[in-house]
Write a structure and sequence with these properties.
With 360 residues, this protein is an all-alpha fold. It folds into 2 domains: 183 residues, no CATH class; 134 residues, no CATH class. Helices cover 63% and strands 0% of the residues. It is globular and about 60 Å long.
Length: 360
């Protein structure tokens, strides 16, 4: 006997949603290959192969599902992970991060749609914890390796033209950050297709830009990547399983990510400020959902109680943010990853494994 619902929308299947996200991300992969040629292509293919194989093997062994890798989610995880990396990242480190993203970021939580943290960012933090090369500034010195320079691709002239060219193609930073225009276009495509909502990106970017203005107003050194911020806000913070459900909760979630990311930058966290902030808020998503749960029809809202709960939640989030700053300063973040590994393996064996066959 089949389970309800019996009527399913044609354009809202898992594969349809994943295909739209892949379509939005593919132009960024093309630009990365234009910039660094075979180097970028090799890293992207390595990540995709590692994610797809890991997804297939563990689902085949534990869930007896031999077609799960065809839904496209592993490809999205691979692309997003690669887009946060330098083209100088060793291929075996990329393969390890992709394996960790699927196993520890998705599968051990129970599979697709059950992950509590963004899988791509989980994979990236595993790479940082186990490979010192990820924390080295030299891995980002890539200007001499650019295959197609900006001057070779775009004509330059007036100040306005140069600014427009920088938005379209600028080789600097991670593999997914070379075209602000294409990142924005991909996000706009997902908004039009209703694969993401506007609340999280709007709240995150608005809050972060306000913090940027304050920093510059007071003469504070505030270095960040606008392309990386846009990529994280549109494609990573909006990950459906790990982000809030209600509109008000999404606005709150985006605002706090922006504030925490700014706090991390001011504290000296250079490369992981957005990764840390998104993962931190992922952990608080269940509490955000509880507080901003839509009220039942006919029930009067108690704004005093809600405000009190928001205050205590915000206090807890910033307390955890200060803890992350301290752990990062003393180089102890890797031990958080080790504890996470033990926790998720035990949780899987005693809880999630029983529900591995259940749908989302």
């Amino acid at each position: 006997m089949n389970l309800n619902p019996f009527i399913k929308p044609k354009n809202n299947t898992v594969r349809a949603v994943m295909l739209d996200v892949i379509i939005a991300l593919l132009p960024l992969a093309v630009v990365a290959c234009i910039a660094y040629g075979v180097i970028a292509l090799w890293l992207i293919l390595t990540a995709i192969a590692s994610c797809v194989v890991t997804d297939f093997l563990f689902n085949a062994v534990y869930a007896k599902n031999y077609t799960s890798f065809l839904d496209g989610s592993a490809i999205i995880t691979a692309l997003l992970l690669c887009f946060t990396l330098s083209p100088l990242t060793p291929w075996y480190v990329v393969a390890f991060g992709s394996f960790s993203a699927i196993l520890f970021g998705k599968f051990l939580w129970g599979g697709l749609g059950k992950n509590k943290f963004n899988p791509a960012l989980v994979g990236r933090e595993f790479m940082v914890a186990f490979f010192t090369v990820m924390s080295s500034a030299t891995v980002w010195v890539t200007n001499s390796m650019v295959n197609t320079k900006q001057s070779d691709l775009l004509s330059t002239g007036s100040l306005l033209a140069n600014y427009g060219n920088n938005l379209l193609y600028k080789t600097g930073g991670a593999l997914g950050e070379y075209s602000v225009a294409l990142i924005f276009s991909g996000g706009l495509y997902l908004l039009i297709r209703r694969r993401i909502s506007w609340h999280i990106p709007f709240a995150l970017l608005t809050t972060f830009l306000f913090c940027t203005w304050l920093a510059y107003f007071y003469g504070v050194d505030f270095k960040y990547s606008s392309a990386g911020l846009l990529l994280g806000g549109l494609f990573m913070a909006t990950d459906m399983p790990s982000s809030p459900n209600a509109s008000q909760g999404r606005l709150y979630y985006g605002c706090i990510i922006g504030l925490v990311a700014a706090m991390f930058i001011l504290s000296g966290i250079r490369f992981e400020y957005l990764s840390y902030s998104i993962l931190l808020l992922n952990g608080f998503t269940p509490f955000i959902n509880q507080i901003f749960m839509p009220r039942a029809w006919g029930k009067k809202p108690d704004y005093t109680v809600k405000a009190e709960r928001i205050f205590f939640l915000t206090t807890a989030i910033f307390a955890m943010a200060f803890a992350v700053i301290s752990l990062h300063y003393y180089g102890l973040i890797k031990y958080v990853v080790y504890v996470y590994i033990v926790y998720i393996i035990l949780k899987f064996n005693f809880s999630f494994l029983k529900n591995i066959h259940n749908p989302i």
